[in-house]
Amino acid sequence: MDAALGAPEKMAGRADELTPMMAQYFELTRQYDDALVLFQVGDFYEAFCEAAERVARLCEITLTKREDSTGEYAMAGIPIDNAESYVETLLDAGYRVAIADQVEDPDEVSGVVERAVTRIITPGTLTEDELLGGAANNYVAALACEGSRYGLAILDVSTGDAYATGSDSLATVADELGRFDPSEAIVGPDAPTDPFDCMVTPYDERAFTAEQARERVGEYFGPPERLLASDAEVRACGALLAYAEYTRGGAGVGEDGRLEYLNHLTRYDPREYMVLDAVALESLEVFDRRSVRSSEGLALIDAVDETACAMGRRELTDWLRRPLIERDRIEARHEAVEELVGAVRTRERLHDRLREVYDLERLISRVSRGRANARDLNSLGSTLDVVPEIRDAIADSDSTKLQSVHDHLDDLPEIRSLIAEAIADDPPPELTEGGVIAPGYDGTLDELRETERSGKAWVEDLEEQERERTGIDSLKVGHNAVHGYYIEVTDANLDRVPEDYQRRQTLKNSERYYTPELKEREDEIISAEQRADDREYELFVEVRETVAAESERVQELADALAQLDVLVSFATVAAEFDYTRPEIAAEGIEIEAGRHPVVERTEDAFVPNGAALDREHRVMIVTGPNMSGKSTYMRQIALTALLAQAGSFVPAERARLRIVDRVFTRVGASDDIAGGRSTFMIEMTELAEILEHATADSLVLLDEVGRGTSTTDGLAIARAVTEFVHDEVGATTLFATHHHELTDVADELPGVFNRHFRTSREDGEVVFEHEIAPGAAEASYGVEVAGVAGVPETVVQRAADVLAGETTASADDGVPTRTNGSGSAPGSDRESKSASNETLDSAGETDAIRDRLREVSIAETTPLEALQLLAELQSEIEE
Ligand SMILES: Nc1ncnc2c1ncn2[C@@H]1O[C@H](COP(=O)(O)OP(=O)(O)OP(=O)(O)O)[C@@H](O)[C@H]1O
Fold it and tell me: Which residues form the DNA mismatch repair proteins mutS family domain (predicted)?
């Protein structure tokens, strides 16, 4: 157990003697023993004992100590005003943070102020806007297991987005987690933690019991069996709701403990969407640009994001993460986009209006949690104000999708006018200091403000009056926070001070007075002001509760606006970058002049390429030198399918696409040095996954499979995989390879065909044309590309010599030779130059090295070990 968590040992020993404040701290640390308790003492959040040491070290703040009659305790304090950055540091270090606020006004109690945990901040349940990076969703997940069935629930506490799904396969659960990428997870008893890539903690087992879970799900979403498919799902959902309530620590939770803004759950079957596992999302660079290949930091989402509001951006993320597989739904989106592409003015108007839309999902969540201020309500109000115009703009649309959005655009008229009438125009962020309620909304408040105003006006006139009465021209009337109103007279005029003046304060060169009447007015002003402020707060809370009661309608509106924003965004991108509406077909992938949506933005002269695959031509072997464009081409086909199924138009002149159930990728291996898995091992694991799960409806991208091992093994594996994919799986497959021998398979298997990337030579240099053409490439040009990439000339020349020598030598060795069309490498003019090559002929040495290499088990060798071996072999040769 981490010593920084739970009740400090030092206090446990003398629990009965602790001062009342420390006793409170002790009790809270005992109760919230899985979180670091930050305990409010005035303007600071304090931690004590081991927790203080940990906080001080992590947050780099000074460790002090507190001494009282019971002893000395280490103490570290975080200033409340900028607690966020410190809390973030603690979360990053893997802690949950329980915030224990003072829940009583210290001025109003004698003795120790009551404190309570008002929220527990955890990575997956953040709602503090400052800590949430921008518009993106932040998810917490729960996994439960019942027999062989897994149930997964996912929730964004800041927006109320909730999902549930289930499967018999842990791999499917892992794929779904790959889509959502949660930042925290809780797991039920018996549920595995290995599919998670985030902070995972077991949580109170009781919350996972069927009985408790069923009850809780019922409270939020109605009868569980109407919504969820298995007990495992119910248990995951119930536990997740319990956890979300727990982290709210009672604040902003309804009377019955409910989080009122959570009232909609999307239950889906993983099979309702195109499956995109974490490997595919990463290698296609859908959300993050991780590899060095794609240019200038753009991911797919950046290339197609013209959304106007934060909700739209989140919705777009969701559509790209879960592309559809139902033809009708896909075509409904295309139809809407088509209509918006054609209606330029409407589209622009919609975009402009949507920019005025605030993040309703987060606003309503703040409203329900009792954390919204008057500015938030005004933001909600101004968003509702633009809804009628948005609704009008699509009122006459033909598209059924736009019509359905239209029907959900409810501007909540009563809430809109309530906010307009009740909330002041430019309110302060605080709620207790007045200025939040508009004049005219409440008679009592207006009277109080009038009393305050007329009192102040009387005071303002007083200076002039008293100057006249006393004849003292320099007399001043002023106010300060400590002494209130006063009349100030300089020492030179003290002899003219009237009798009814009573001394209030003596300054260096003057005296300050008050009169009984001034005092009376002052009391009136203060009391009216105080009562008005209290009244405002009371009214505000009433308004906020009325709005909270409509959270479900606000969420529906938010959802409609978000969908519209994505459709408008797709249409804007389509118009600006010349995308076309894909035709959804029963069979085949036919693309004319297709482009890579990201690379085309950064490559000045992007060369469009087509593709034609169908049942008779289902496996395309793509050859061509390094850098000729193979990877770009394969990804562009997958991205075209993904975009089309997300509902977007696609970057091509024409596209006819079948629906794909899953995209598999095995492209570019990255070393997993920390995990101790070799490149080859990763490659084979991913390959195994593909071969096991791909179906005839899948799209499979294989990039240089078999690269991490010897040429012979690599070729053998590549060939076997091609045959298996062709014969057994039947998936539409693109296979980029440097094994030219693989292109021979096209002659043997009917569904396999060759394409290559054209290159030409200009002044002895390779020129990449980036154009795909029928048939196989002639050779790989690897050595020339090394030259283009800046490898020193001597090395390139040496490589050219070795290559020529090897080609000759290998024929004698029985190692497979290149069998491209002409039977000789395109650099055949080099062969004569390297006739005197000496490297590969000292037989004994070569044999010894070969033997050692043969003994190496590549699958079990880490990159570091491989480097070591290489170094040893090199030194042997040198000796
Ligand atoms: N159709 C195209 N038009 C213009 N430029 C392109 C095109 N396709 C690719 N490129 C450019 O060529 C570069 C190399 O492309 P890519 O990585 O796809 O080549 P490759 O053949 O897969 O290389 P390797 O065999 O080394 O993996 C890319 O960075 C890209 O900028």
Answer: 698-714
ipTM over 0.90: yes
Atom of ligand 1 nearest to the CA of 757: 21
Own/partner contacts of 764-773, CB < 8 Å, gap of 24 or more, are 766/625, 768/625, 768/627, 768/628, 768/629, 769/607, 769/628, 770/606, 770/607, 770/609, 770/628, 770/629, 770/632, 771/607, 771/609, 772/609, 772/610, 772/611, 772/622, 772/629, 772/633
Rounded distance between C-alpha atoms, residue 366 and residue 839, angstroms: 73
In degrees, rounded to 5, the angle at the alpha carbon of residue 864 between the alpha carbons of residues 862 and 866 is 70
- Whose Cα sits closest to atom 27 in ligand 1? 626
Residue type, 465: Q
Q: Which residues pair with 159 in a beta bridge?
A: none
**Which segments of 135-197 are extended strands (E)?**
140-146, 149-156, 161-167, 184-187
Sheet with 732-736, side-by-side order of all strands: 663-666, 699-703, 732-736, 619-623, 752-762, 765-774
Span from the CA of 770 to the centroid of ligand 1 (angstroms): 7
User: Does ligand 1 lie within 6 Å of residue 293's CB atom?
Assistant: yes
Q: At 864, is the secondary structure helix, strand, or coil?
A: helix
Tell me what pLDDT residue 429 has: 86
What pLDDT is recorded for position 806?
57
Q: Is 630 annotated as a binding residue?
A: yes
Q: Confirm or deny that 378 is annotated as ligand binding.
A: no
Contact 596, 609 (CB under 8 A): no
- pLDDT at 319 (0 to 100): 96
Q: Is the CB of 737 under 6 A from ligand 1?
A: no
CA distances from 137 to 246, 606, 779 (A): 20, 34, 47
pTM: 0.77
Q: Is residue 599 lining ligand 1, measured as CB closer than 6 Å?
A: yes
Nearest to 573 by CA among 351, 286, 810: 351
Spans of the chain below 50 pLDDT: 250-254, 291-295, 670-675, 808-841
Nearest to 394 by CA among 347, 450, 446, 429: 347
| Residue 293 alpha carbon to ligand 1 centre in Å | 8
Ligand 1 centre distance from Cα of residue 685 (Å)? 26
Distance from C-alpha of 685 to C-alpha of 707, rounded to nearest angstrom: 14
Residues 6+ apart with CB under 8 A from 566: 307, 312, 315, 316, 319, 647
- Map tokens 């998670």 to a residue: 196
Report the nearest atom of ligand 1 relative to the CA of 595: 1
Give 631 Cα–ligand 1 centroid separation in angstroms: 6
Length of the chain in terms of residues written = 879
Residue showing tokens 């009573």: 502
| Closest C-alpha residue for ligand 1 atom 9 | 629
